[in-house]
Amino acid sequence: MIQIEKLRKVYRARGREVTAVDGVDLAVPEGEIFGVLGRSGAGKSTLLRCVNLLERPDAGRVLIDGRDLLALNGAELRRARQGIGMIHQHFGLLGSRTVAGNVAFPLEVMGVRRAERSARVAELLELVGLTDHAGAYPAQISGGQKQRVGIARALAGRPKVLLSDEATSALDPETTASILELLRDLNRRLGLTVLLITHEMEVVKRICDSAAVMRDGRFTESGPVTELLARPGSELARGLFPLPAVAPRDGVTVVEVTFVGGTADRPFVSALAREYSLDVNILGGAVETVGGERVGRLQLELPGAPEANAAQLAFLRDSGLAVEVRAPATTEEDDR
Amino acid sequence: MTWDEVTPLLWPATRETLYMTGVATLFTAVLGLLLGVLLVITERGGLLPAPPVQRALGVVVNVGRSLPFLILMVAIIPFTRVVVGTSIGNAAAIVPLTVGAIPFYARLVEIALREVDPGVVAAADAMGATRREIVTKVLLREARPGLVSGLTVTVIALIGYTAMAGTVGGGGLGNLAITYGYERFETKVMIATVVLLVVLVLIIQAAGDLIARRLTHK
């Protein structure tokens, strides 16, 4: 549904060049929620703004529903944008219009007639649960309600694609949760394809089917979330399940085990201990529900150097777990 | 002069002041708005980027604003003659009043438009709104309280300018104050015109504030 190929965007200011997006490839299948995670300055916002051409990329292709947006002229692009919803970190609502007026705005832009407009506005406000606030002005409602208005407005043109630019970053945790739930719900009910950018691990964990980690204009990893979490060395896994950065003592093996889905239900720690008569020490760990699946990471300490534990490590790998041995003396920087 | 003699002078002068201010305000509102919008949308990265145009407009506005009104009025007499056919009288005063107030209001319009959240403009752009829709439905509409406050300030400045209309044979309260109050030492006329001007300004400011507040949805 969304396809981006070799996208590049360079900013030039006073003779200096900054490459904000440096050759990004991205494909979001219909009905999927794809999250791009990165810190500020990673280029994720520019990437998103290139998808509906709020920024014009310097190179690459942007295809929405098979249409090459860069090949469109002004009027065609405006029409195409009417079919791409977008929600914003700071909502972007018109302060001079009521909630209903804000939702009606894109319909006016699309040339929908007045009678039809008010019916559609009522329908949209119902969808996001704001029917009672139709006559309120943005300054009179809460941040979460404002984002609901933003979502209703973005859906006015029955888009197949929704772009979300840090939609929950200005909201408190509970409100974030309710907005994410709404997005998930809309994604399922309307088959909406969502591309979102965020710096919050929480967002990826709660609603994304697939994700990418972006740094310095590039994707450092990308794929289905549960797959990324199980991938050795995954930044996403480290970010979601921060484990203590211990340098293993001599004569012990510290392993980090990631388990996803079905493997999470098997008692592999006790199985390992029994099988090899080991004293397994759990140093740290976390179990979370990601995309409806149980995912967890554990940091285990086994007696004996890594070389002496080859069979034990193989046992863990054979149980379907992702296993990483923490090298002695290297301390991992963990700044997420 | 007794008060009974002063009063008949006041009404025509007030009417003349209101006439000059009113007509000049009308033209200033339209043309100043246009100029202010152009100043904002032609900037680099604006809706209709044309930096050379923006710079040129900026120079015109700055020159217009730096000329003292009295000098502007005299300097553009030939232009006034072309526009209204005469360089003397109230109608002739309206031309320099308008020319002087346009750059003043244009700057205030510019300030008001720059206050509009760029995120709202981006949101409208992402919806597929045309440039015209963004200007009329987003920029001008969101900036309404600021546009009204700016116009209020402009109208009051215009009333001040009309005091100098006498220089080109125009009338009004300012002229009355000079010719009777100052040149003929008629203190009562001076007091009466000052009071009237103060009341006029207070009414306009109060009305402007009220409208601006009505348009603000906080």
Structural notes for this entry:
The complex is a heterodimer of chains A (about 325) and B (about 220). Chain A has 2 domains: about 1-230, P-loop containing nucleotide triphosphate hydrolases (Rossmann fold), CATH 3.40.50.300; about 240-325, ACT domain (Alpha-Beta Plaits). In chain A, about 45% of the residues are buried. Chain A has 11 helices and 14 strands. Chain A is about 35% helix and about 30% strand. In chain A, the strands form 3 sheets. Chain A has a 6-stranded mixed β-sheet, sandwiched between helices. Mean pLDDT of chain A is about 90; it is low at about 330-335. By secondary structure, chain B is mainly alpha-helical. Chain B has a single domain, classed as Orthogonal Bundle (MetI-like fold).
Give a quick rundown of the structure.
Helix content of chain A is 33%, strand content 30%. Chain A contains 11 helices and 14 strands.
